[in-house]
Amino acid sequence: MTDHQHTPLAEKPLLLENERLDTVNEDIRLIQNVNGLTFGTDAFLLAAFVRPSPAAHAVDLGSGTGILPLLLLAKKKIRSATAVEIQPCFADLIARNAAINGFDGKIRCLCRDVRSLSPEEIGGEAELVLSNPPYMKCDSGKRNEHDEKYIARHEVCGGIDDFCASAARLLKYGGRFACVWRPDRLADLFSALRASSLEPKRMVMVHADETSEPSAVLVEAVKGGASSMRFLPPLFLYLPRKEGERSRTLTPRAKKIYDSCSFLD
Question: Which pLDDT does position 247 carry in this prediction?
């Protein structure tokens, strides 16, 4: 289901220009736009971090390819989802990814700006909102050649304050917001959460290995929650690289997370 005009799926080729088809975790067939952000560790770990709510309708803010709702549905962690995406080309992509994986009846795609999104547009207040939001300020980093990637990575269409405010508007009291973010901007995230009455309750730092600084942080907040937070043990993805070793070996904990799409906490 989509809420924007596009050619019926049956009349389209499977892949359009600048697209490729990959099989990723949980045997999901994922069409990706090579000019935009492609599936990576951050998105998968966020899907694993989300605690199961089999009866819940989830809302994904800035959905990209739709990989987060696809993973959550594949693992039966949610009942259905609304995927919100501001770029029409990606909104169309989400619809096609839902269809080829048999979830077109469970993923509704909205081509909307999260800054003006209302609960009425998603069918009422949600129990779960998630996001892998743009994490770079507009004046930081090199300007991406393609607008698709620039908009996905930089806060062109809303910053973390906007995404947290949107999550708070859409959530029912006691509902959960889960996101993946940059550790060097963790203070910005906490400030945005508190300003929107979203209380951080659960967090884990993600490191490449035990000698590396964290490269990502996963946070779950509760609308109207009391002040207290649980820190999960830091996640080290890889064992130390042995001399002459080219490929990297997942740590036992990381392998369990990848095998189960769950932190098992």
Answer: 87
Distance CA 128, CA 50 (A): 9
* Per-residue pLDDT tens digits for 204-263: 999 999 999 999 999 999 999 999 999 999 999 999 988 777 789 999 999 999 999 999
Poorest-pLDDT segment among 109-123, 141-155, 189-203, 208-222: 141-155
Return d(Cα 74, Cα 102) in angstroms, integer. Answer: 10
Query: Cα(60)–Cα(37) distance, rounded to whole angstroms?
Result: 16
In sequence order, what DSSP letters do the residues of the chain get, joined into one string? -BSS----GGGS-SS-TTEEEEEEGGGEEEEEETTSPPP-HHHHHHHHHSPP-TT-EEEEES-TTTHHHHHHHHTTS-SEEEEE-SSHHHHHHHHHHHHHTT-TTTEEEE---GGG--GGGGTS-EEEEEE----B-TTSSPPPSSHHHHHHHBGGG--HHHHHHHHHHHEEEEEEEEEEE-GGGHHHHHHHHHHTTEEEEEEEEEESSTTSPEEEEEEEEEET--S--EEPPPEE-BPPPPTT--S--B-HHHHHHHHHTS---
Query: 265: Cβ–Cβ under 8 A, 6 or more apart, which residues?
Result: 232
Domains of the chain: 21-260 (3.40.50.150)
